[in-house]
Request: fold
Amino acid sequence: MNAPRTTGSQLPPPMAVLLELTHRCPLQCPYCSNPLQMDQVKSELGTAEWKSVLDQAAKLGVLQVHFSGGEPTVRPDLAELIRHARAVGLYTNLITSGVAANKARFDEMVAAGLDHVQLSIQDSDAATAEKIGNYAGAQQKKLTFAKWVREAGLPLTLNAVVNRHNIDRVGEMIDLAVSLDAARVEIANVQYYGWALKNLAALMPRFDQFEASIATVAAARERLKGKIVIDYVVPDYYAKVPKACMNGWGQRFMNITPAGKVLPCHAAETIPNLQFDSVRDRPLAEIWAKSSAFEAFRGTDWMPELCKGCDQREIDWGGCRCQAMALTGSASEADPACGKSPFHAQLRGMAEAASHAAAPEFQYRRITPRVDQKSDAPEPV
Ligand code: FES
Reply:
């Protein structure tokens, strides 16, 4: 029996809301999760609008707010928003590259009640890290930022996105996290939609590199038990089962863009024909319960027969809708990461071919000029 959609008063509140305060960012990572067409600064929500979002989120039952971007610390009102979030009872997490804020700004955030910091790194090797982010001097700034976090007594999570250029240094990245006194390190292989899809050939690791990274992580988990938590998100194209993306579409999570559009995930705008409501036009609780974009893939009613008949349907929820869209041309297909998907073998073949070819130059993430999403992304498998 498939899970019906739960709507209105039966629908549990989201656990977390991620606020993309801005799409501005000093880094230009070729796998950036922001959309190809980014929001301009003049369209960003103002301080009062973000405070209203925080009020509404708390009232709805949200527990945790992630301040993200782009780079959220370029917003001068960040400390004020953190203070407001704390005042309405939300746990506050800052997701940052660590390159844009000076110590005085960081101290303001701590004084405002910041609870936790997630700091991104591009590599343990500074030269490669700075090539990936296209920002000279970034690594030292990140290490300094990490030191401030721990000196302030805040828990630190280090995030690293791995790809063909850095996956051989997964062990060094874990060691770096330990040396920075992080409580957790999240190592995630690139997910291919948006900017990453444009850069697929430049980023795809070989299968043997992936296998070696698995062994490295397993050994590190054993060696560092009780000292640091190591999360490893394996690459979908070499997986056999899909991940439960967002813990199920429209079930635990909301993402709000700089201009106020409310999305079920950060990449949802890559799915054509979905209508996204804005916090400027509709209350947040109503968007969560009734927005057509959230309803589109909530529960199991939308699933193709392959997923409906699968005993994993309420565990992986059909995988990632954005990846299905990017790689099959339809968001209603099973995620091709699933071994049962008719597209799975092609996906694996594409990954093998791309990873054995010479890596092309990165197409760096830039906020301008306007980019045509369809112009140079690979064709669906
Ligand atoms: Fe959109 Fe996975 S990123 S559903």
Observations:
- The chain has 14 helices and nine strands.
- Residues 189 and 234 are 6 Å apart (CA to CA).
- Residues 245-246, 249, 265, 267-268, 320-322 surround FE2/S2 (inorganic) cluster (CB under 6 Å).
- The beta strands are 16-20, 64-68, 91-96, 116-121, 156-162, 184-189, 229-233, 253-256, 262-263.
